[in-house]
Amino acid sequence: MDVLIYLIPIAIFLGLLGLIAFLWSLKSGQYDDLEGAKWRILEDDDLPEDRQK
């Protein structure tokens, strides 16, 4: 039971750290363009110019 003295604050700290990371990603615009990512997957920009015909 003595280990709970260490585990509970660690769990609370990790939870707050995850919440802060999520709020930071919202503020920095990570979820602004949800439609663009699925269309960028389908583009063949990585092919050389002679093979894009």
UniProtKB/TrEMBL annotation:
Transmembrane is among the record's keywords: yes
Transmembrane segments: 6-26
Keyword annotations of the record: Membrane, Transmembrane, Transmembrane helix
NCBIfam families per the UniProt record, alphabetical: ccoS (TIGR00847)
Protein name: Cbb3-type cytochrome oxidase maturation protein
Species of origin: Roseibium hamelinense
